[in-house]
Amino acid sequence: MPAENIASRKVSFDERAFLVDGRHRLLVSGEIHYARSPRELWPVLLDNAKELGLNCIASYVFWNWHEPERDVYDFSGDRDLGHFLALCAERDLDVILRAGPYCCAEWNYGGFAPYLRDEPDITIRTWNAPYMNRVEKYFRHLVSEFRPYLASNGGPVILVQVENEYANVAKRYGEDGQRYIAWMGDLAKKLGVDVPIIMCEGGAEGAIETVNGFSISSDRMRKFRKEHPGLPAIWTELWPSWYNTWGFQKHFRDPRNIASHILSFIANGGSGFNYYMFHGGTNFGRTSMYLQTTSYDFDGLLDEYGSPALKGRYLAQLHKMLNAHSGTLLDGKCEVRRNGDGTLSATWKHGNKSLTVECRQSPFRATVTDKDGKILFDTEKNYSSLYTSYRPAGWKTLPSPSCWRSWAEPRPSERTDDAISSAAPIEQLSLTHDRTDYCWYSAEIKLEKNGNHILELSHCADVMSVFIDGKPVGFSQPPFLENRGPTSTSKTKKNAGEKANMLELDVGQYAQPFAFSSTKGNHRLDILASAIGMVKGDWMLGAPMNTECKGIWGKAICDGRSIRGWRMRPFLVGEKLALPSRTSSVKWQDGLRNSQGCVWFLAKIGISKNILSSNTNFRIDATGLGKGMLFINGHALGRHWLIEGNGYGADDKWQDKKLDGLYLGPQGEPTQRYYHVPKTWLKEDNELLIFEERQCAPGKVRLEMRKV
Ligand code: GAL
Fold first, then answer.
1. Are 64 and 111 spatial neighbours (Cβ–Cβ below 8 Å)?
2. Which residue of 525, 536, 577, 661 pairs with 289 in a disulfide if CB–CB is 3.0 to 4.6 A?
3. What integer best gives the mean pLDDT of the chain?
């Protein structure tokens, strides 16, 4: 809690900028999601933010992080929002709190609590009583947690964002949507949010609209000014690169291009920007959205481990220069010149000070000079001087994990727990409520011939492992599309609107064929359905988020004949036994046996006191593994998948090279080979636990460290 004697701060705005206690404030902000790092890392991240010249931090508040189960609220430990805000305050960092209830952010279900899906008659993100009742209840709780940290109460929170990029769904929800978004803003006010409320990319009256993007062009600024007279221009999401999805290459963005676009935004009158992400962090456990890798590195200014990336060190030079001249920039008189060749030049004069920003296009390059013509920042020169001299520390492999043991996850035929029976397969989320990725689907099949057979699942998601008589015979063949389209022809046709040929869409995106060979006769078919996160937004389904489906919910056809008589078993037995936190609850077999997939592996990893007490980062090189989940000392490190990356994914900016400075990582390498292990989860004697769906070589797995 902020100390009682801290004075209230008044946040206001004019067309030029936000003001705190009557003084214009240039927002040099970076997004850090506290939910994507253990709390022990928060001070490190915030110190580095300060060190790299930020004066403000933005974070989303994910609803499902704080209400993991209906009416169960958790604001403790790694979910201690108040502690995070207090750490910001201690460092004199202001905060933009992006309170939701919807966030997006490549986080599971865009931040929504998965239980919402089970509320009768719910439609998410629109004027719908079942939805709004849950929002109101949660928001009441949430606001009471952060109210003491509002600037008006002497705390660091100067702005609160409500909802997120509503423009993306506004068309679908029409007038009801507009009523809902206006209600959201009013609700925040009613609950006591008395700092300015912002809404990015689609707002409501009474909220301050802000912009997001890779760049904010002069045309966009003109449009913004016209549509929002009297508001400051704030760039709430400046994308320094992009997230990565399983099966695609990694995304990168050249920092010179970022610096040029920041300066062009400022020359056009912008007075605040927020890197999304400044520190991406990690989607530990099951917190990733569908298809999003466990790493959320984002090619940000801090790397996934929280250390300044070279990009961050470079941009820090720009931040420091901007901070030093913010008075001139915000209070000076500005003259802007645009030349025919696209060059933009802005000069601010304030007292005896002056500052000139000059931006050229294609390729973008910008310089900042003072009144004597001295160069204060040059996107090229500042880059070359830093990038030629700096050598980041390398990673070292620690002694191999030892004492390997294994325990085969019981096949459905070996399970003693009750199955759910039904003629047709039952959709997975209605059985798991997203408390696990896994659900087995089992049936008897009769094959009419020896040799090759085809199993076709008309509607299934996400990754299927097919077993005949307990032996693996096939896996889903990615890449999967990020935006897949509606999940079922009947259920969502009405809502899908713009998507005309639903059947075709479904077939392309949810139908999966599996070819296998087997003998004539009766066989046991088991399919392990593995979900890889819930969608982050309507557009991934072309339908409201609550219509998402996982597992098998359509027809299952083998050699042209429909399979009937299914038994569903949600959860792995290892999960039911809470194996990650109680590894002694099963009888392990020594050594690394040759597995048929679906096996738990356990190994010991020793780390010396010396290494543990030094300033180090740790990661697992997961080479040798297939797909599954990793745990260390009971902590869920996340999903692993060594799938090769090919192509750019859903990001047409990379496809069409709509912006200079975007590039992809190498083709054919795993989208994610390394997995962050926070130091705070390590000790001298460690237990590494792996659940592996595929046949694999876990003996190749290594722990690596790097001195910071
Ligand atoms: C934005 C969204 C963010 C994040 C970002 C992409 O549109 O508001 O939450 O998803 O895209 O990384």
1. yes
2. 536
3. 94
Token reading at 213: 């993007």
How far is residue 488's CA from residue 492's CA, in Å, rounded to a whole number?
Answer: 6
Relative to the CA of 201, which ligand 1 atom is closest?
8
Residue minimizing CA distance to atom 5 of ligand 1 = 105
Please state the atom number of ligand 1 nearest to the C-alpha of residue 277: 12
Residue 105 Cα to ligand 1 middle (Å): 5
Q: Which domains does the chain have, with CATH numbers?
A: 11-325 (3.20.20.80), 396-405+576-707 (2.60.120), 412-571 (2.60.120.260)
pLDDT(516) > 90: yes
Q: Give yes or no for residue 497 having a pLDDT over 80.
A: no
Residues 6+ apart with CB under 8 A from 237: 31, 200, 212, 213, 274, 276
Q: Measure the CA angle with vertex 45, ends 42 and 50; round to 5°.
A: 125
- For ligand 1, whether the C-beta of 651 sits within 6 Å is no
Q: CA-CA distance, 26 to 445, in Å (whole number)?
A: 67
H runs (alpha helix) in 191-332: 218-227, 255-267, 310-324, 326-331
Beta strands in 48-176 (DSSP E): 56-60, 94-98, 157-161
Radius of gyration in angstroms for the set of CA atoms belonging to the chain, rounded to a whole number = 27
Q: Is residue 106 in contact with ligand 1, taking CB distance under 6 Å?
A: yes
Instruction: Confirm or reject: Cβ of 31 under 6 Å from ligand 1.
Output: no
589 C-alpha to ligand 1 centroid (Å): 45
**pLDDT tops 90 at residue 449:** yes
Q: Which residue, judged by its Cα, is nearest atom 6 of ligand 1?
A: 105
Q: What is the mean pLDDT of residues 133-155?
A: 98
- pLDDT at position 496 is 41
pLDDT of 596 reads: 86
pLDDT, one tens digit per residue, over 517-545 is: 999 999 999 999 999 999 999 999 988 89
Relative orientation angle of helices 129-146 and 81-90, to the nearest 10 degrees: 40
Tokens of 8: 């209230």
494: confidence class by pLDDT, cuts 50, 70, 90: very low
Ligand 1 binding pocket includes 62 (Cβ within 6 Å):
no
* Confidence band, pLDDT 50/70/90 cuts, at residue 649: confident
State the sign of the Cα–Cα–Cα–Cα dihedral 666, 383, 279, 261.
negative
- For 486-508, the three-class secondary structure string (H helix, E strand, C coil) is CCCHHHHHHHHCCCCCHHHHHHH
Question: Is 237 touching ligand 1 by the criterion CB < 6 Å?
Answer: yes
Q: How far is the CA of 167 from the centre of ligand 1 (A)?
A: 13
Tell me which residue has tokens 């009158």. 269
Q: Which residues are part of the catalytic machinery? A: 165, 237
Residue 364 confidence (pLDDT): 86
Å from CA of 506 to ligand 1 middle: 26
Which one of 60, 165, 210, 482 would you pick to mutate in the ligand 1 pocket, going by the greatest count of ligand atoms within 8 A of its CB? 165
pLDDT over threshold 60, residue 2: no
The answer to whether the CB of 632 falls within 8 A of the CB of 681 is yes
**Across-strand partners of 356?**
347, 369
Q: Which atom of ligand 1 is nearest to the CA of 200?
A: 8
| Residue whose structure tokens are 């692993």 | 640
For tokens 């609107």, name the residue: 497
Nearest residue CA, atom 7 of ligand 1? 165
User: Which H or E run includes 173?
Assistant: helix 167-190
Look at residue 554 and tell me whether its pLDDT is greater than 60.
yes
Q: Is the CB of 163 under 6 A from ligand 1?
A: no
Give the per-residue pLDDT at 361.
85
243 lines ligand 1 (CB under 6 A): yes
Could you tell me if the CB of 60 is within 6 A of ligand 1?
Answer: no
Looking at residue 384, its pLDDT comes to 93
> For residue 521, what are the contacts with CB-CB under 8 A and spacing of at least 6?
446, 447
In angstroms, the CA 420 to CA 71 distance is 27
